Amino acid sequence: MSHWLDRREALMIAAMVFGLAYFYLIPWPLLALPGLIWFGLLAWRRLDIALALLPLTFPFWYVPKRLFDNKVFPLSEIVLAICVLLAIAHLALVWSRRPFPPRIWFSGIRSGNGWLVRQLGILVVSGTVLFVIGVSLGVLVALRRPEALRAWRWVIAEPLVYFVLLLCYGRSKRAITLLVWSFLGGALIVAVLAMVQVLWLQVTFRPIADGNRLVHYAAAAGATPRATAIIYGSANSLGAWLARALPLALALATAAATRRLVRIAAWLLALVYLPALFWSDSRGAWVAAIVASLLVVALLWRAARAPLVGLVAAIFIIAIWQREALANALLLGHGGSGEVRTLLWLASWHIIRDHLFLGIGPDQFLYYYSPRYTSHPYWIPRLNGHVTPAIYQPGLAQPHNLLLDLWQSGGLLAIIGFVLLLAGVAGHFWRIWEGRLVWQDRSYGPLALGMVASILAGLIHGMVDSAYFAPDLAMALWWATALLILIHLQVGSAHTKAPPVNSC
What we know:
By secondary structure, the chain is mostly helical. It has helices at residues 7-25, 29-45, 47-53, 75-97, 102-120, 122-141, 145-169, 173-201, 235-254, 260-280, 283-300, 305-321, 323-331, 337-354, 365-369, 402-434, 444-461, 471-492; strands spanning 65-68, 71-73, 203-205, 214-216, 382-383, 386-387.
């Protein structure tokens, strides 16, 4: 993380961010268009920087930008589309200048595939293929195929396109640095918005399905409002984002190998994240952030290992001793939402039992669960002759559990593929961590640890909420996966010849 940008690159970044901010914040499409054109012209010059800045736009998915008439698109989707078009144009330009016969192209594709498997690892490649096949088969069996295709585009196609573009254009040390700080910068924006919301404006956007407009920020009588950072429809979405960012910032802050200025900046970010995470009142995000952060501190701060082991042991003993009170605090702390989750999980298991192998397809849970869409819903308003809290929430759209969501969206293939993908990611991290002391740049080990801790936080939070099948979270997972692979390529390039930087 010691690869500073030169003045020209810093000006390029500032100009791109200004163009995107102008385009996004100006409400009139024609007046906003020059900002997007400005960004596109700059991205043509430095596509690697444009791709590295994309994580800044991830959190704004749920407040899309109106382009024309009533057509709205998320900012990250617009920026990704521009980057894809520019990458195709770059490739076409290379082809026009260096024409090759088809035989050479096919030979290059075969050798490129071999290089891809060697660099990504067989687990990442096979896991990705199985995961994509599983969710794609889910689209074919979906009750409402247009919704399933839209979800497939958002959580499969676009994240994978971004993943591939990062592997092609993000292999420089500076691109890796910018990718990390763009993600942390996006989290900083939502943390600041949460503070503004709680301390001043008291407004929030309603979800897209309810009109996506600003409304008064309120809660039930006597309850404390949960921060949503204005741009989210749910406080859990804010918690999910900050739970991923906090351990990464902590890894940079506690790593002795990083520069002093980097450590100070990372500590400041962590201090800003903490109150916003607290105000989200997302218990699952709290647990995820704590566990992931403890892992980071335990591995990077030797002096803290013994106290941490004692602390974890004490927490474990107390958790067993007070397990019922702890379960009530975690599951019933939001007016019965924990009990609703257990009923959701039961309903989800009933759906899986009836659609065991292929699942029901992405973004289809609502149409099986809710009585608004089917005459035979899996909704559980009554259980053992008693009314359940689920009777007041018949319109929930996802099962609030990653494993159940995977199984429903893509069947057994999706689960197997996702597990293999995570195993491949763990393998990349282990090889980076194992050799961290022999590389010239020792900051990559702590950075890789922060990335893995961020993924771990998402998985832990995903046991009680959405972890992948939301567009911003899907982009975040493939961003983290690509970044770990890029770090591994960077530190292991002496043994394997890679294609030139900034090209496929």
